Amino acid sequence: MCRICHLSSRSGEGGSELILLGCHCKGELGFAHCHCAEAWFMVKGNRCCEICGANAENITIVIDSRVLEEGHARRELNTQNPHDNGERIVCWKSPTHLLPPSPPTLPVIGNLHQLSGSLPHRILQELSAKYGPVMLLHLGSVPTVIVSSPPAAEEVLKSRDVAFASRPHTTVTHRLFFGNQDLIFGKYGKQWRQLRRIATVHLLSHTRVLSFRPARQAEVALLVADIRSAAAASRPVNVSDVIIEFTSNFICRVALGRTYSEEKGEGSKVNKLFDEITALLVAFPLRDYIPWLGWIDRLNGFDYKVKKVALEFDTFIEQVIQEHINMRNRNERTHNNEDLVDILLSLGDVDSSVSLSQENIKGLIFDMFGGGTDTTFATIEWVMTELIRHPNAMRRVQEEIRGVVGAEAKEEIIGEEKLEEMKYLRAVIMEALRLHPIVPLLLPREASVDTQLQGYHIPKGTRVLVNAWALGRDPKLWDKADEFSPERFLNTCAFDFKGKDFRYLPFGAGRRGCPGIGMAEVTLELVLATLLLHFDWELPDGMRAEELDADEGHAIVIHRKSKLVLVAKPCRRH
Ligand code: HEM
């Protein structure tokens, strides 16, 4: 009996006994076939092995509601597989009506009550273990599908990614980003495609990332100087604080042309503004989930807060743009000192196909700042946390970096071409991002049409969250899944940051995957290599490695709950 549609094997023409198909890794494919191998039955809704993600290549899947209505399987010739030599009979429950499994809901709030008490990605992992890798929740009135298996993630991010390429509009993103006229939160469509092209071709291309080298190196030099002065005064270093200052100054330089930290009070004002925006992005406006209770958002001051922050943000960005326009008018800007605002303002001159509104420009500026600051900071924080907790990995990575740079090299900042050779450092970063994908549920997607996912019906407007955190920690997918072991990423090219393998998705994948990977890679590698080259790191006050916590804070980008404070000892190489 097929477990999905309950047709008996005799309904197919093949015969009687059903046997589960195995994969080369000995995982189940989720298909069953009868002993004479003629009738095939879908048993779990998977098209791939749940363990290694391999495709069930030689199986034809017939998505045909007649299969169910008529009560028998249909014959179909597999034309796509050259090795296939004949007919398959496949049975699939009508895909048009079956919704994914769902935990019981309460009136009005749906499943919202189940999301309290821990961090959402952790709760959703537990629920998925019970209800399956494609699970439907009702967050108030918003149907939300949670995806936590490689085949389902692949379907959302690759094979059906046009259907799932939109983002939901929320009260906060709508008000802050000028009606979602930006790249991160914009709806999929012509305008979004233009913004995406601008970001990949003009703002974050390989050449552009290289052109930011002087800014990167200058800010890394300041970071090292800060740590050296703390070390000289025998002060522990608040690693979290110095790294957030580095990332925000670097992105300010690159995007806005200058840092704000040198102006008294101004720097902290900019950081505070962006902190307020990120806090609003994880807030829970009732209007978005239970629309008829939206008046409470007005009553408890939430609407006022959003309006105030939106106004402050707008005023700040307007001022930055005006400063740039004035400098352009005075011919103070040259090709050599262009920042991202200059590039956006002059795009119309260099590319006649581009038409950007003032709102688009403001949105893109936020995207570069919001996309590049917290993410880089949180990743560096997690890498340092894991290295301190794993002294062997710390020793190995430092030996590698010091070996590559060479004992006699005098330079303070490592030449970026040398980063290529640091394979173990790269494996360390990849492993830290497997255990701590800092955007654990990626950014929410929305089905823009009625569509299918793993044989389930997904109505238009359904939100979709891919639980990258659960994928990275699934013991069925990873050997010793909870252990920090960078070696698993050495000597293999099976994984990359672009989402080649759907077990590993720290930057998402597909057309809405992160466009800032190139910029992130070089910044992460340069900062970490420099910190690990010049300093030996220890925990303060005789604390032992196993006592350092790895608790996560609640935010859209997950960083440590508490600040990371370490003792830096300058390393004498020369
Ligand atoms: C360690 C660093 C970073 C990580 C882990 C990261 C991660 C992510 C993730 C998970 C997404 C959502 C992908 C999806 O929904 O499939 C995303 C989107 C995005 N990221 Fe990054 N990111 C990083 C750095 C950056 C940088 C440096 C920039 C630019 C300066 C950037 C700009 C963006 C933008 C604009 C989007 C939205 C893309 C779209 O919706 O089309 N990110 N990032």
UniProtKB/TrEMBL annotation:
Domain RING-CH-type intervals: 1-59
Cofactors named for this entry: heme
The keyword Oxidoreductase belongs to this UniProt entry's keyword annotation: yes
Keyword Disulfide bond: no
CDD domains (UniProt xref): CYP71-like, RING_CH-C4HC3_MARCH
UniProt keyword terms in alphabetical order: Heme, Iron, Metal-binding, Monooxygenase, Oxidoreductase, Zinc, Zinc-finger
SUPFAM superfamilies: Cytochrome P450, RING/U-box
Matching InterPro entries: Cyt_P450, Cyt_P450_CS, Cyt_P450_E_grp-I, Cyt_P450_sf, Znf_RING-CH, Znf_RING/FYVE/PHD
Residues that hold heme according to the record: C514
GO function terms (MF aspect): heme binding; iron ion binding; monooxygenase activity; oxidoreductase activity, acting on paired donors, with incorporation or reduction of molecular oxygen; zinc ion binding
Extent of the signal sequence: none
Family membership noted in the UniProt record: Belongs to the cytochrome P450 family.
PANTHER family assigned: CYTOCHROME P450 71A2-LIKE (PTHR47955:SF15), CYTOCHROME P450 FAMILY 71 PROTEIN (PTHR47955)
Protein name as catalogued: RING-CH-type domain-containing protein
